[in-house]
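Weekly modeling sync, notes
Attendees: S.R. (lead), two postdocs, one rotation student

Agenda item 3: backlog of single-chain predictions. S.R. asked that every request posted to the team notebook include the full sequence so nobody has to chase files. The rotation student volunteered to paste the first one in as an example of the format we agreed on. Action items at the bottom.

Example entry:
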Amino acid sequence: MKIGCVKEIKNNEFRVGLTPDNVRAYIAAGHHVYIEMGAGLGSGFTDNEYVDAGASLIDNAADVWHLVDMMVKVKEPLESEYPLFREGLILYTYLHLAADRQQMDALLAGKVNAVAYETLQEKDRSLPLLAPMSQIAGRLSIQEGAKYLEKKFGGEGILLAGVPGTPKANVVILGGGTVGMNACKIAVGMGANVTILDISLKRLEELDNMFGAHIQTLVSNDSNVERVLKDADLVIGSVLIPGGSTPKLFKKKYLPEMKDGAVFVDVAIDQGGCGESSHVTTHDDPVYTVDGVVHYCVGNMPGAVPRTSTIALTNATVRYGLEIASAGLEEACKKSEVISSGVNTYLGKLTNKNVAAAHNYEYTDLTSLL
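Predicted structure, as returned to the notebook:
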C-alpha cells in the first residue's frame, strides 16, 4: 500500500503523523511511504532522516494526497484540504467530527474512508490512540493553567503551591478519566488543593486509592459542581464521550459566582467543550475572559510540545496503521472490531453512532457495507 504523510497546517501545529521509525516499520512490511518535504521539522525530524528510513520525499502536499492509498495525519483536515479528498482514500487521523459538521459533510461527499484516532476502542473499552494525547493534555492543562493564573495574563495572581503562610490554590477537575487523572497528578505534585469530580463511584474509588489524602473526590452533579467552583482558582474540564459531543458541565450561570481571575482550561474543546461559555482558541491567541473568568480553550494543546507528543502518539498509531495497510481497510475491519470502531465515514456513509447522534444524522452500520 502507498502510505502518505503531509505537514500539518493547523495553527501552531508542529506534530507529524509519521516518524522516521514509523517509516521503517511500513517499509519493512512491504509498503511505500511518501512524505511531504519539511513535514517533520516541527517535531525535530529532518528530511534526511525520512530518506534514510526509506521514504520518498515529495515537494508539495497535494501530490502526496493524490499519490497515496492511506494518508496518516495528526489533526483533522482543514477546509483548504477538502478538495484533495477522493473516493476510497483512507484517512487515518484525529477527526473530532461531533464538533465539526462541515468536515463531516466534506468527508461524506468525498466518499473518504476516515478512521478516527479518538474513537478506535480496544476490547477493554480503552481508547489507545486518544490516551497518549490525553495524558499530555492533562499534564499541560495544569502547566498552562498555572501560567494564566499570573496577573499579567489576566489571572488572579496566585501561585498553585503557595508558600509557607499563604493559601494554596484550589484546583477543581471535572472528569476523572485519563485527562483528569494526569491533571490531578501534576496538580498534586505542585502542591495545590485538588478536588476531582466524576459520575463513576468506581473511578472515584480508584482515584482515592491513587492519591489518598492529597485529593478530595466528589460525585459529579450540578450541586457539587456549583459549590466547588465558587472557591476554585483553576478549573480543568476533562469530560469525554468517545466520538460524541461533550456534556456542558461548566455552565454560564456559575461564572458570576466564581473568583475574578479564576482560570478555566477546557481540555474537551476538540469535542465541542464542556463549558457553555467555551469556544475554540489557538496557541497564538489562547485565552479570553467571560464574567471575570479566564478561559483557555486551545483545540490542539499537545501541539505545544510536538516532540514529546509526536513520539507518544505514533508509538500508539503505527500498530493499527500497519494492520490497515497490510490487510486493506475492509479486511482489517472484518478481522478486527477494534479497527472497525475507528471508522467514522465509509464510502459516503456515516458509521459512528455518537457522531450521528451529535448531528442528528443517519447512521449506517459498517458491517452492512463491507
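Discussion: group reviewed the output briefly. The first strand starts at residue 2 and ends at 5.
Action items: rotation student to repeat for the remaining queue; S.R. to check formatting next week.
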